[in-house]
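User: Hi! I'm working on a homework problem where we have to compare a predicted structure to a textbook description. Could you give me the structure for the chain below?
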Amino acid sequence: MIRESLVPPECDELLNEWARYFKDRHRYNRAKSIEGMFNPYAPGAWDTGWGDPGAPEYIKPDVKVPRVLLTHAAIQELPKSQKWSVTFGYCYPNLERWMVLKSLKKYCGRRFTWSGFLDELDIGRVRVWARINSRY
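Assistant: Happy to help. Predicted structure tokens:
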């Protein structure tokens, strides 16, 4: 099912940048010490003693913090259901449907269907774009 976009691609860029900045990164944090680089499952790790961390595959562009804070302020002014829909749609796009719907029920206090979630996401995107444009 293809949905028409009601906002320009710049809005998606702003929301993706916001999601990258505000995403929960606790599971990615670890000590940057040399002991933390040891990977016992790397091929030849026990022979040489250290795994090869390798180069990063893709370097993401820098985040413009003032723009992210403006987007975050616009998202915080949304109603609860749209705020959570935008959060799950952009920060956690790989979650399965049942998990998104269960989390929406937990945080918003009512049940959603998948099409209801997509409607709330579209309305939230339009409102965020309108609030950002009204501030310039």
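For your comparison, note the following. The CA atoms of residues 76 and 130 lie 14 Å apart. The two ends are 34 Å apart (CA to CA). Good luck with the assignment!
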